[in-house]
Amino acid sequence: MAPIIRISDAKDYVGEIVTVRGWLKRRTGKGKINFLRVRDGSGIFQAVAFRPNLGDEIFARVKSLTTESSVILTGEIVADERAPGVPGGYEMDLKDVEIVQIADDYPITPKDHGAEFLLDNRHLWLRSDRQWAITRVRATVIRAIRDWLDDNGFMGVDTPILTPAAGEGTTTLFEIDYHGTPAFLAQTGQLYNEADIFAFGKVYCFGPTFRAEKSKTRRHLQEFWMVEPEIAFCKLEELLEIEEQFVSYIVQTALERNEAELKLLERDTSLLANVKPPFPRISYDEAVEMLDEAAAQGITVPPNNEPLQAITWGQDFGAPQETYIASQFDRPVFVTHYPTIAKAFYMEPECGRPEVCRCADLLAPEGYGEIIGGSERMSDPDLLVAAIETHQLPEDAYDWYVDLRRFGSVPHSGFGLGVERTVSWISGIHHLREAIAFPRVLGRLNP
Ligand code: 4AD
Ligand code: MG
Predict the structure, then answer these.
(1) Is residue 116 part of a domain?
(2) Nearest ligand 1 atom to alpha carbon 422
(3) CB 68 less than 6 A from any atom of ligand 1
(4) At residue 397, does pLDDT exceed 90?
(5) In this structure, are 40 and 174 located in the same domain?
(6) 114-131: b or e for each residue (b if 16 or more CB lie within 10 Å)?
(7) How does pLDDT run across 58-111, given as a tens digit for each residue?
(8) Domain with 345 in it: what CATH number?
(9) Is residue 373 lining ligand 1, measured as CB closer than 6 Å?
(10) Rounded to two decimals, what is the model's pTM?
(11) Does ligand 1 come within 6 angstroms of the Cβ of 189?
(12) Rounded-to-integer distance, Cα 21 and Cα 4, Å
């Protein structure tokens, strides 16, 4: 019996008869020859069905195959540079086909369907070449995240998803009923991470986080995955060095492991190749000046080429401002020292200049915007209590969090990297909804 192999391993079986189990993407050809484009999860290749070799009965079976029919193919692996597919370069000279199921009329065709139809059929759309490639890039990104952190002294500690209070502002909370007590889906694991560093030094949590974002944008999901490292005895400057090493490793690993997927996505990877430390650092003040000048010159920004608006000091940046700032650099850029009023309650104020805080957002190039938010955390209990009051947060719920500053407080810092934003950037896709298998965007819960 022929060995059962996966398409990604075809290169190791040239000249051998093997079996591949998968699904038919497309059947073309006429007369004596049919080309079957087949995928098996690991890759995509072509099987060539030639009637004189197969005989009439098997060839008739081939001709009965519809798109998405499940099949077991047996044939010889042939190396051919021109053979299409992922990774490409190998095809199958078909000898036999076993039909597992003839698929019904498949609703997704090569025509342009529109986003809503595709999202309604996300359970099927996932099989498409582009979606397959993006989801594989995501798996690489997630593995690279864990590898880098585990190899650099961070310990994974899981944080709760059911929480009693806001971690990241009260405007985007999903409230649920915790047996009669109001509770919230976690917006962040950070506050718990901060407790964990006092036990373990360097930690990270990595899981789904939830934001009831009221607006529909291509950069916001209701449910997204975030990795959050947190480090004891770490100030902002050191934090940025960790972030640039971390992000560079993720990007370079994806370039290395997903070359074929990125090619399928037609991603121009030249800019990604630049993503190596050090990343430029500018302050919020410098960024505001940069925006003032550009707005005065009437500069427009993609994707809609609207005129760039200057902002008043104190406001956070919107997508156009982030896009413009990032476009001035050839790799991701840190913007540091945002106005304290524009940021979360827990950020350490800058010494001698409390109107700005010791934080940094990392902006990705090419219009992908903020991929990381991070900061030094307030380490003084009294300052923290005052900040909780200023932000009108319920003091009782944060008692334990203030406690951390009462028993061996240290300077500490951490950040959160959004997985879908990172995957979108690396894959070069326009909308975050394609960067997660079953996206939760405003107004959609199915499938
Ligand atoms: O800047 P954010 O809100 O930071 C925090 O949550 C901190 N507690 C993290 C920390 O310091 N431990 O979010 C961090 C990142 C953003 O930079 C972005 O990449 C992503 O999370 N993000 C979203 N991604 C998709 N959809 C949304 N609605 C997102 N909101 C934030
Ligand atoms: Mg942020």
Answers:
(1) no
(2) 19
(3) no
(4) yes
(5) no
(6) eeeebbbbbeebeebbeb
(7) 999 999 999 999 999 999 999 999 999 999 999 999 999 999 999 999 999 989
(8) 3.30.930.10
(9) yes
(10) 0.97
(11) no
(12) 8
